[in-house]
UniProtKB/TrEMBL annotation:
It comes from the Bacteria. Residues 13-188 form the VWFA domain. It holds the Pfam family VWA. InterPro entries: VWF_A, vWFA_dom_sf. This is VWA domain-containing protein. Coiled coil: none annotated.
């Protein structure tokens, strides 16, 4: 009699590219982002893992670019260290780290569902980013991933961020206050969790930002 192994859930990788440059330290921006990502982790961890399992990685770029949280099943994340804002905006370096992760078939296997890559920034890149941006956007798996972005404040490079996006159902989100940052992350969380419950998790889910409730405790304008 043959023994059949239990079929494990297929992962949905979610990769956050978070601007932690010095300008994020003002007006509560980095504090709101810390709160928002903690909420995202909690939301992902609560989801059923019968069909799909949400995995999360966070790459930061402030002074330098680094992997702040390695790709981990959300329900296994027991500690998240707060961001601290400092330095310039080496976004190109962060995109290279993200490209290497998304193309690594040991970390993201071929059975994974379509990844979600989210870019958050309040400024312009300060490194030599154009070539790295082009390499990222033309990478085979990055092309197939769902790419979203949030521009924080009036100094964000919206032209570049619109070029980053590839999902018509998720246009560039513009955050003008700390509430908006929380709202964006809630919308992304709802989109990903909807996919995890779906019978077709590779299909994108439209994001409706206007339907997300606001956090009344956060009202700082940028």
């Amino acid at each position: 009699m043959k023994k059949f192994a239990a079929k494990s859930a297929r992962p949905i990788p979610v990769i956050i590219l978070a601007d932690t440059s010095g300008s994020m330290s003002v007006d509560g921006k980095v504090d709101a982002m810390n709160q928002a990502i903690r909420g995202m982790i909690a939301s992902f961890a609560e989801e059923s893992r019968l069909n799909a399992e949400i995995h999360l990685s966070v790459i930061t770029f402030g002074g330098n670019a680094e992997t702040h949280l390695a790709l981990t099943p959300a329900h296994q994340i027991t500690h998240f260290e707060d961001f601290y804002a400092t330095g310039g905006t080496p976004m190109g370096e962060a995109l290279t780290i993200a490209k290497e992760l998304i193309e690594d078939k040991e970390k993201i296997s071929s059975r994974a569902y379509r990844p979600v890559i989210v870019l958050i920034s309040d400024g312009h890149p300060t490194d030599d980013w154009e070539g790295q941006f082009s390499a990222f956007c033309s990478a085979e798996r990055a092309q197939k991933a769902t790419r979203m972005a949030m521009a924080i404040g009036s100094d964000a490079d919206e032209v570049m961020m619109n070029d980053f996006i590839n999902d018509l159902e998720a246009p560039l989100f513009r955050a003008s206050n700390a509430q908006d940052i929380i709202k964006f992350f809630r919308a992304v969380s709802m989109s990903v969790t909807s996919r995890s419950r779906s019978t077709t998790p590779n299909q994108p889910v439209a994001i409706t930002y206007d339907e997300i409730p606001e956090d009344d405790e956060l009202d700082l304008d940028f």
